[in-house]
Known about the structure:
Elements: H1 8-11, H2 18-21, E1 39-44, H3 61-64, E2 73-74, E3 80-81, E4 86-93, E5 96-101, H4 115-127, E6 140-147, E7 150-155, H5 162-165, H6 174-187, E8 195-201, E9 205-210, E10 223-228, H7 232-240, E11 246-248, H8 252-260, E12 264-267, H9 297-310, E13 315-318
Parallel strand pairs: 1-10, 1-11
Antiparallel strand pairs: 2-3, 4-5, 5-7, 6-7, 8-9, 9-10, 11-13, 12-13
Helix pairs in contact: 7-8
Amino acid sequence: MIKNGLTLRRLAGVAVAAAVAIGVAGCGGSPSGSSDTSHVRALLNAQPATLDPIAGARSAQVVWATMVEPLVATGEDLEPDETGIVTGWERTSPTEWTFTMRPDLKFSNGEAADAAAAVATLKLTRDADTSILKSYFGNVESFEAPDATTFVVKTKTPQYDIPNLLTTVYLLPPKYYAEKGAAGFSAAPVGTGPYVFEGAKAGREISVKANPDYWGEKPANSGVTFTWATEASQRLALLQSDSVDVSFDLPPAQAAQAKDAGIEVVSTESALKITGFLESTKEPFDDPKLREPRRSRSTATRSSRASSTARPWRTAGCST
Length: 320
């Protein structure tokens, strides 16, 4: 029997970026498809270190992407599309990209979410010492906003992937960010997203509520409260006890147990790529023979374990 009446489609509003960076899990819903305004209880595997997209690891975007949106949206194929804040782009020369923005957008605090805001956000992303994406924009010579709905990215040498890079740059309100600083913004984020910040209990939970003025499709629930538990067994237990509606990052063993218990488990493709490097200048792998895969069972085992650890980013479960 379905207990909470939430559908995967409705839970998609929990985080715009979740399907890209982390597996999304939804619970069984009403066959009638009627609107559900319940408050979603979402469980993470760790507390986000920050809600500032400039400095924060992208694993935390499952929380901040409810409030703050990327400049360029992605489709189901994880490729850039024109359905988000940016509605089109053109490579106007080998070293110049011109982007068109959705007109008349505003942040939830009333600031204009325009090309000037995009340029300010991109400059922070390139220049701020704390920027997690700083190195990705080292080839960019300038950002310009010739009008309210157009911004131009000029690179020092030809660069083909600028639209792809903008899928992970989240538009920030420049005046608010300058006034509050990184720490202040993280304490109460402001964006253009389907939810707005509601409150937080330090070390315990973060809550967002539906944004009544959202420019896109309105959330079908009234809000989301994010809590966290580092142990996978604890996350599974909380699902089974109906203490939460959805949990992210269940490892394969717990995901299998969840399925056996009748909990719906949903996995999605991920844009996350994990690259492993072997330190060949230190023992024991300074020995060339140990670096030969066909002769090193330990290397193969570690590679297998690395594959297993990648899966939690793609698997999550929820109670039914």
